[in-house]
Amino acid sequence: MAVMTRPLLNRRLAEFGTTIFAEMSALAARTGSINLGQGFPDTDGPEEIREAAVRALRDGRGNQYPPGPGIPELRQAVADHQREWYGLTYDPDAEVLVTAGATEAIAAALLALVEPGDEVIALEPYYDSYAACVAMAGGTRVPVTLRPHEGAYVLDLDELRAAVTDRTRLILLNTPHNPTGTVLTRGELTAVAELAIERDLLVVTDEVYEHLVFDDAEHVPLASLPGMRERTVTIGSAGKTFSFTGWKVGWITASPELVSAVRSAKQFLTYVSAGPFQYAVAEALRLPASYFDTLRAELSAKRDLLSEGLAQAGFEVYRPAGTYFVTTDIRPLGAEDGFAFCRSLPERAGVVAIPNAVFYDHREAGAPFVRFAFCKKTEVLEEAVSRLKQLA
């Protein structure tokens, strides 16, 4: 039998193995640990939205292929949401595209807009699919590192400007930011917008945590700033906002030209998905403001519970302004290697977390940082905090 000498895996993906989320979730299951690694809630979202999906299934809506761009009801609901929350007006027929979650939206946008050799700037630490999608598109990722300063992670705008070259095609922006919990300010986003206009760059913005902002933080869509609507692809998702992450319903809003480009790639990925769930998400987007207020209040309380418990256990805690996640520094506990720390934590304390280094190109910059998710039941977080106190 002949031996195959060429590697089976496409060389663009050779650096990407099994995701850290799969590894750590399997470790949680094997050890019976509390899983604060992967960012999914342990309770479902609103009962009336779940029933809306059941009703759609029973009524035969979405059980066959839905329209390629998404069902009209959801595209209209997305357009209405952008107008009511941010004053952004989009044509639901030409400027909204429904995707299989934000992950497909990111992949389709990068495959559509990036040519081999183009540079893509991303803020590191970044969601792990960013690197893989840039690689699949043949692009070169250029990380700009968010660094901790006075209890939060901050963007160095000078470093961002210096990262732009004649080969830069787009900036891949994430705010509220996973994993650091940073919410970019209006001033920071204005500077990004001015840079994009000056250097004629596209911007893809991942805004899936748009409703999960706390305290005085404000989510500002980049597309709402002067000159940015025509050069920004905005990505949204139902999973985080409505706690139905398994439904995988996301969307983009952008100019007709950008939507057409992204749709050209998207149609050869999933083509369509989540038919009945699209009807349910259309209803979810029309929930009253009180729903979003309650969600923020509940998650803010859980953030405080976990943050205070982690501090008591000896971690240095970077209190997040948004998202599901708390980033911590393990050096006060006498550790420096986040991978080794997270792999030993289930045995030491019965809790699973994620090493932030997996979200960095500059692995050494993320080595001592570990992420915990607080989108869990209060009693689960209380038990996790109790276990983690063993580390103090």
Strand fraction band? 15-25%
Tell me roughly what share of residues is in helical segments: 40-55%
Count of separate DSSP helical elements: 14
Q: Span between N and C termini?
A: 58 Å
Tell me the total number of β-strands. Answer: 15
Mean pLDDT: 96
**Major β-sheet annotation:** 7 strands, mixed
Order of helices and strands, N to C? HEHHEHEHEEEHEHEEHEHHHEEHEEHEH
Oligomer status: single chain
Task: Report Rg.
Answer: 21 Å
- Unreliable segments (pLDDT under 50, ≥5 consecutive)? none
Shape: globular
Strands side by side in the biggest sheet: 2-10-9-8-7-3-4
User: Which class of secondary structure composition applies to the elements?
Assistant: alpha/beta
What's the SSE blueprint?
Blueprint: H1 20-31, E1 34-35, H2 47-58, H3 72-86, E2 96-99, H4 101-113, E3 119-124, H5 128-136, E4 140-145, E5 147-149, E6 152-154, H6 157-163, E7 168-174, H7 186-198, E8 202-206, E9 232-237, H8 238-242, E10 250-253, H9 256-266, H10 275-284, H11 289-313, E11 316-318, E12 325-329, H12 338-349, E13 351-352, E14 354-355, H13 363-366, E15 369-373, H14 378-388
Parallel strand pairs: 1-13, 3-4, 3-7, 7-8, 8-9
Antiparallel strand pairs: 2-10, 5-6, 9-10, 11-12, 12-15, 14-15
